[in-house]
Structure formats: structure tokens, C-alpha cells
Amino acid sequence: MQRNCKKNTLMNKKLIVLFSLLISTAAHAGAPLWTIFPAPGSNPTQIVPENGTATVNYMVQNQSSKSKRLIIQPIPGIIQTTTCTLTPKGKIGSSCP
């Protein structure tokens, strides 16, 4: 009897681990939190001389139901000119240039 109980306990633990892995994998999949695309009139593919500069503008749209504040991590030669604070999807301010 104890042997069956130990087997059942071990089997239950294995099933719990399996279901936990399946649930955590599904929880991470989903729609992107925001979309990024070139702003109207902006040319994202430019030839820039070695000592030259260029400006490329992008639009960012929030796809989340929560507010977001996006900041570019430092990249040599890239400057973020404006901060991007997004309101929840569908509200005024849910996109920024």
C-alpha cells in the first residue's frame, strides 16, 4: 500500500511539473506590447557619409492596456530626441513619434 502511495505521489509531482511548464510557456506567448514603424515622410534607408548625420523618425504605438515609457538604451551614434510616454491602447496619446 505504501509503495502505491509513493508511486502516486511521484507521478503527481511529475504531472505538476509538466503542467507548470506548459502553462508558463503559453503565458509568455502573445501579441507585442508595442509596434514600431517609420513615421510618414521619414526615410529609414539612407546613405550617410562617414562624417555626416541623418534623421529618421519612427512612430511607436502601444498595444498594451497599460501605460508605457520607452527609452532607447545607449547606442553609439544614435540619439533619442524625444521621450516616448504611451497611454493605454485606444486612448489619446497611445502613440508617439
UniProtKB/TrEMBL annotation:
<feature type="signal peptide">
    <location>
        <begin position="1"/>
        <end position="29"/>
    </location>
</feature>
<keyword id="KW-0732">Signal</keyword>
<protein>
    <submittedName>
        <fullName>Uncharacterized protein</fullName>
    </submittedName>
</protein>
